[in-house]
Amino acid sequence: MNSQDQPRTLFDKLWDAHVIAEVAPGMSMLYVDRHYIHDLGGNDALVEIERRGLTVRRPDKVIAVPDHVVSSDPGRAQGGAEWSIRRIDALRDYSQKWKIRYFDVEDPEQGIVHVMGPELGLTVPGLLVLCGDSHTSTHGALGTLAWGIGASEIVQVLATQTIIQRRPKRMRVRFDGMLTPGVEPKDIILHLIGKIGASGGDGYAVEYSGEVVCAMDLEGRMTLCNLSIELGAKIGLVAPDDQTLDYVATRRFAPKGASLDLAMVYWKTLATDQNAVFDKEIVIDVSSVAPQITWGTSPQDVISIEGCVPQLQDSTDESSLRARTEAMQYMGLAPGQAIAGTRIDRVFIGSCANSRLSDLRRAASVVSGRHVAPHVEAWVVPGSKAVKLASEKEGLDRIFREAGFQWREPGCSQCVGANGDLIAPGQRCVSTSNRNFVGRQGPGARTHLSSASMAAAAAIAGAITDVRTMLS
Predict the structure, then answer these.
(1) Residue 113's pLDDT is what?
(2) Closest to 120 measured CA to CA, from 136, 104, 112, 109
(3) CA 175, 350, 305 angle in degrees (round to 5)?
């Protein structure tokens, strides 16, 4: 039997469709359909292209947008500092030189690359999508093969429109059951990370499936795929379905007319075949999953809002004991301490994990008619200009402002801290971003990852709290 006739996973179909050549056992040269570049690496790669006398092979396949170093200050002009302005200017100039489509800071379609790409239809099912950012896996929610690449790989893709990559193994995670009120996609992916660890996905492409995922909207699926990186995987995938096709069909840059009809015929084939074999399978019943919150300095340091910081004696080995001890010291928490009631200083609702319209709607429903605790500074940073405009049309900005939140301009902001949006040393922040590493939000900053609803509830309570107590 020909290998193409055997049952194949979604990953297999996407990978095989992009192979140009097998360059070594397990190593393939792949064609790249879409290459996103941003202001923290894209301009450096274009400088290197010029220095080496190379050319951008397919500028029509490249999309450039400033998002990492842009200021989120209301009424911003560009970056918040001279160095960031220089980076944005360089990306603009090189994009113009190479005729790369560029979405400038003031462009009405600017936003975080992993938010604006799907919402504009620049990412559609079936593509191979790359970007110099680890959370490129987000695009896999539309049934694409997507992962983040390093500096030298960015140059390679710009110059050749190809990449050489080792074929990963295949994992399927099936989420079954029903989400209970107050539990969001962010909670179940954090629960999974806590269950199998931050290295549980090493070497795998992860496909998310099950009745929960089938019922989940595209924005929730993007959250799942986004945090695949925190699972240790580079690739997260959800098979396209009717909901995906309806989402894509209305997007500005998606195929139109007969081209769309033809594309949809192909997209409908992008599902894992019955009896296809995965290297690893995990099944999780989400019915008993409560809202999650991280306590330490790795996404795997996560517990239920009803839980307590782990006891040190529960550590499985010397390395685990040392990591837990250091995390608790950094976070200013004690073994066995209940996480609920922990006083906070800051709240950040934003990032490519949770800054879409559905996230902001859920957060606004929690804060409506309430007010941020006096000692808390709370920010909402929409993921794109389109999200910001849609939120303002619905009056979400008014709800946040009246509750005492700052309503800011789109960008990565406090998730990456490369733009002056920092948490002060020792301050404790509940954040909807995807990483709680030491110093991620600023030197000495203490970060607790959560869903948008949980972050909103913490802002109101002035402490980590169970959002379910605030739901009507």
Answers:
(1) 98
(2) 109
(3) 50
Domain 9-167 belongs in CATH node 3.30.499.10: yes
DSSP assignment of 264-281, as one string? HHHHTT-SPPTT---SEE
Label residue 329 exposed, middle or buried (CB < 10 Å: 0-12, 13-18, 19+).
Answer: exposed
Residues 262, 264, 266, 269, Cα dihedral to 10°? -150
DSSP 125: T
User: Model confidence over 374-410: pLDDT tens digits?
Assistant: 999 999 999 999 999 999 999 999 999 999 999 999 9
Burial code (b: 16+ CB inside 10 Å, e: under 16) for 254-275 equals bbeeeebeebbeebeebbbeee
Angle between helices 42-51 and 82-98 (to 10 degrees): 50
The Cα angle at residue 225 between residues 235 and 344, in degrees rounded to 5: 125
Whether 4 shows a pLDDT value over 70: the answer reads no
Question: Predicted confidence band at 314 (pLDDT cuts at 50, 70, 90)?
Answer: confident
Percentage above 90 pLDDT, the chain: 94
* This prediction's pTM: 0.97
Specify the fold of 307-470. Aconitase; domain 3 (3.30.499)
Q: pLDDT digits over 225-282, tens only?
A: 999 999 999 999 999 999 999 999 999 999 999 999 999 999 999 999 999 999 999 9
Asked whether the beta carbons of 84 and 359 are under 8 A apart, the reply is: no
Residue pair 303/293 in contact (Cβ under 8 Å)? The answer is yes
Domain locations in the chain as residue ranges: 9-167, 307-470
pLDDT digits (tens, 9 = 90+) for 125-167: 999 999 999 999 999 999 999 999 999 999 999 999 999 999 9
Q: Are 9-167 and 307-470 equal in CATH topology?
A: yes
Cα–Cα–Cα angle for 126, 127, 133, nearest 5°? Answer: 135
Q: Who's near 175: CB < 8 A, 6+ residues apart?
A: 188, 208, 209, 210, 211, 212, 213, 284, 286
Residues 6+ apart with CB under 8 A from 181: 468, 471
pLDDT at res. 456 = 98
